[in-house]
Amino acid sequence: MKNVTDSFFSLSHWPSAGSFGFNTDILATNPINLSVVLGVLIFFGKGVCLNDLLDNRKQRILSTIRNSEELRRGAIEQLERARTRLRKVEIEADEYRMNGYSEIEREKENLINATCDTLERLENYKNETLHFEQQRAINQVRQRVFQQALQGALGTLNSCLNSELHFRTIRANIGILGAMEEITD
């Protein structure tokens, strides 16, 4: 440090004869040169370089922030639209689900009603068929009983009647028929 201060004092002792030479003492000349260069740079480059660079950097940062904000707003709007669409789709899905359930219930009820109607018709048909078969069986039994009774009566009559009784019955019937014929004429 003593060399630096000595170099400033030594400037005052330089001869004014105008001799110009090189100072080979690096420690003495470097701080002076650096202070001169920095002074010139700050004086001339202060408004131009550093402020312009900082202003450009500031503008780029602000522009990036603005773009980010716009992108954020756009993303938020898209998110809200997507949420709204999701709500609509969920509502539609619920409606389809409810309509589907009610349609299924309606179809189920219709199927149950149709099955009940078919069962009722089949029951009626069965009852009619049973009634018809009962009537047919009763008629067959009546015919057989009547035939058997008639055969039994004929057998009894044939065994009880002799030919003379037979002729008298025929004459009586002929007389009845003749009397009926006279009445109708």
From TrEMBL:
GO biological process, one term: proton motive force-driven ATP synthesis
Record-level Gene Ontology MF annotations: proton transmembrane transporter activity
Residue ranges of the TM segments: 32-54
Protein name per Swiss-Prot or TrEMBL: ATP synthase CF0 subunit I
HAMAP family in UniProt: ATP_synth_b_bprime
Main location: membrane
Subcellular location: Membrane
Presence of keyword rRNA-binding: no
Coiled coil: 65-99
Pfam families for this protein: ATP-synt_B
Matches recorded under InterPro entries: ATP_synth_b/b'su_bac/chlpt (IPR002146)
UniProt entry keywords in alphabetical sequence: ATP synthesis, CF(0), Chloroplast, Coiled coil, Hydrogen ion transport, Ion transport, Membrane, Plastid, Thylakoid, Transmembrane, Transmembrane helix, Transport
Task of the protein: F(1)F(0) ATP synthase produces ATP from ADP in the presence of a proton or sodium gradient. F-type ATPases consist of two structural domains, F(1) containing the extramembraneous catalytic core and F(0) containing the membrane proton channel, linked together by a central stalk and a peripheral stalk. During catalysis, ATP synthesis in the catalytic domain of F(1) is coupled via a rotary mechanism of the central stalk subunits to proton translocation.
GO CC annotation: proton-transporting ATP synthase complex
Species of the source: Licuala paludosa
Family: Belongs to the ATPase B chain family.
Topological type in the membrane: Single-pass membrane protein
